[in-house]
Amino acid sequence: MRIASALLATLLSLAVQAAPSPQASLDRSLWPEQLDSPALFDVASRAEILSFAQVLHESELLDDGALAGRLGLRQINLQKVRLVRARLWQRLWQGYQQAQRSCEQDASFCYPVTSMAELRTQAATFAADVGTFYTGWIEPSHQFHVRYLDEQLRKAALLPNTSSEVERLSNRERNGDELNDRMFLLTFVGGPGPDGGYTDTLTHYLRRQKLEGTFFVLGNRLQQRRDAATVQALRQLYRGQCVGIQGWEYRSHAQWQGWQDSLRRSQARVQADLPAQYVPLFRPPYGQRRADGEAFMASQQLQVSLWDIDAQDEGVLSAEASAQRVLTLMLLWRKGVIQFHDSLPKAQPAVEWLLRNTAQSGIGWEGCHAYGHREQGD
Fold it and tell me: Where is the signal peptide (predicted)?
């Protein structure tokens, strides 16, 4: 009995260690200013960049064992963790440089930082002198960035055995880093939903807002919609939008022996039914794909389209909390590809909240056709 109890305790411990971090969001009402001008967007952006940089700096002080424990893993790929950290620092430095351009209009969170080394130094002491106006935001922001960083480092620690969106596997893969400052692309996955459901109301809403989104569809769900209605109904559903593929089923394409057939079938379905909406992009479910798949992707004239801002609207976060998470990451990265789930109920209210709260912030929304047909390096 004791042996069985000990074994059960061990298995429970392993399960806990294997579990990902709880989903993270940040209540934007804790930030004391509205983002109603480009300059105020930059103020909030500089603050989030410095807050995350502090957390990233703190993580570098952990030894291997402490980091593994924090991430809930027994073993970590330290080389990949360091590479991901280096890329994060590079993006932070690029973003902070962009956000400094409005310092003459509002000097909040403007420090004499002229190099990445100086950004690291500033990050180490950040939060010591931000002033009482921002006091209520400091600690919740720190906590959010700790959890968000853990999400990223945990995925890095599992590479290359478990691929994800935190690392490009070839130069044909895209993740939003190629966008211009303040530009964001709306993308949606896992659809289409049933006729008359959330996908329908979302695409109708986007058209009313004169916005374009890229919908990465599953071949089997698209087939179900086609069988239940007509091709014309499908074309009306996605009118004015873009449609890429996620494969025939929502499952990892990393170990699936039929992954090539999955892409071929779903690509053929979309090209036949939605030729005007089709874009040659593949969004791998869970971000998992094969490292040796580049030649096949090229033969199909497909590019892997990753994301760098995850709404996590499929989990426990409310629609508003999901939108607040997205906005915080938009401020942090200043550009990127946003991922929602169009067949679930939270995507549309989250997008509505996001548009209301960024309407005067000076950001822009990337056109899906221009992005979808752009060659890597353009």
Answer: 1-18
CB atoms within 10 A of CB 8: 10
Strand partners, 191: 217
pLDDT 10s digits, 122-131: 999 887 678 8
All residues at 6 or more sequence positions from 134 whose CB lies less than 8 Å from its CB, including other chains? 31, 32, 47
Domain boundaries, the chain: 29-157, 183-372
Secondary element (H or E) of residue 270? helix 259-273
Task: Compute the distance between CA of residue 224 and CA of residue 233 in angstroms, rounded to an integer.
Answer: 12
pTM attached to this predicted model? 0.92
The number of C-alpha atoms within 13 Å of 315 and in the hemisphere containing its C-beta is: 14
Please name every residue paired with 50 in a beta bridge, in sequence order, or none if there are none: none
What token pair was written down for 374?
């752009």
**What residues contact residue 180 under an 8 Å CB cut-off, 6+ apart?**
335
* DSSP class per residue in 137-185: HHHHHHHHHHHHHHHHHHHHHTTTTS--TTS-SSTT-B-STTSPTTEEE
Bridge partners of 338?
186, 309
User: CATH: 3.30.365.10, 3.30.420.40, 3.40.50.720, 3.20.20.370. Which one for 183-372?
Assistant: 3.20.20.370
Task: Write the pLDDT tens digit of every residue in 231-251.
Answer: 999 999 999 999 999 999 999
Distance, CA of 67 to CA of 215 (rounded, Å): 37
Alpha-carbon span 72 to 87, nearest angstrom: 23
Measured distance CA(41)–CA(331) in Å, rounded: 7
Burial of 210: CB neighbours in 10 Å, binned 0-12, 13-18, 19+: exposed
